[in-house]
Design brief:
448 residues, alpha/beta, 2-enoyl-CoA Hydratase, Chain A, domain 1, 3 domains, two-stranded antiparallel ribbon, 18 helices, 45% helix, serine-type peptidase activity, serine protease, ClpP/crotonase-like_dom_sf, Peptidase S49 domain-containing protein, protease
Amino acid sequence: MKHKFALNYLMSQPWALDQQLLSLMSDIANREVDSLSLDDFVPESLAGKSGKKITRGMEKREGGVALIHVSGVISRYANLFTNICGGTTTQLLAQDFTQALNDPSIKAIVFNCDSPGGEANGIHELAEMIYQARGKKRIVAYVGGMACSACYWIASACNEVVMDATATAGSIGTVLQMRRRKPKAEDDFETIEIVSSQSPNKRQDPGTETGRAAYQKHLDDLAEVFVQRVARNMAVDRDTVINDFGGGGILVGQAAVDKGMAHRLGSLEGVIAELKTGKKNTMPDPNQTNTAAGEGESNITLTLPGSEAMSAADLIAAITEQRPDAIAAIKGPEPEMAISHAADLVAACAKAGVPAFSASVLKEGITKAEAENKIQMATGLKDTLAAAGLSGSFDALVGCIDDPVKMVGKAIHEAKAETDENGDLTRHVTDEEKKTTSLNAKEIYAKR
């Protein structure tokens, strides 16, 4: 007798999953699986271009965009059930998302969704991880096929939900499928189950009204968390989710956008291009026409890396890559260099009476504006020294024009030297005058 582990697992878990696929999974899990090749269930992405494969479910596109594939049924952990029924797991999705979030070379993340949903366990944790990462990097969910139930929960946690016009979204709610064992007369053994008297609710019989009510409450509680989180993620109230988001059904393309379940229509390659360039191009609504001038123009977005360990240099590099025009506007136009205007600056120095100063301003790295400012400062210094009678000190002081402290010290030294020199001259002149104007009576009588 073969044990049907996949079927047992399927029946033991609550699912946030499209009903049609749940039935199909049940049929697959119920059959013999000896002849199945597990390699046949490796998911492949439908995209116009391929990127560098980072993990089994994630690739990196040019421009720093990570593409994480959410394909097939979502389970919590990778196991035999995943291999048999295909799909992905919240465990692997969380690992891929964390890796992309912490990679400085990745500036935006796209969840490429095409899944009917999956196991309820683990979905809330993954969705919360995505929601809490909003603002760190741009996170977009693209729905090219379906984002039903658990998959829509994940998609709603992203900054934005973009859908193809033929894609479907919804199926908000939970379901639990049970299969009761029927006793057979030919069975050798009879299964007897005894539950502790302290735990009357440990083994509820879904065949009874009380047991069914207990299971119903469990599903309702799970679904309430689902509804509340979707309402928060999509910035609507709970009643809007209950009344407008399909009531457990699914909506297609523009209808989902109109109800607020998605933000806009678009394509996968279009979303990736937008995140790469920072320009958002929205697929037009066929039911609306643009009448106002400028309506329908591209919006500009900017995605910055959000890792706390990100350096200022990395942030500047990210802005430079996405918006070089913004960096250019901050820096302003390239300044004119002094060497390019050598003739004009030489003439300006000559006119100011400081012709030799032109050699100081015609150097590599000095801008025209800086050179003109230096000439103006040199002219002011020349006039100030002339007024103080220290014109001879100009050459010594102008060499320190870029170092005010040094120039002040040198000016004091020059002024003191000039004062001392003038003092010696005065004493010399006074002594000579005394010798020529004083009277000596003995010399006068001797000469007579």
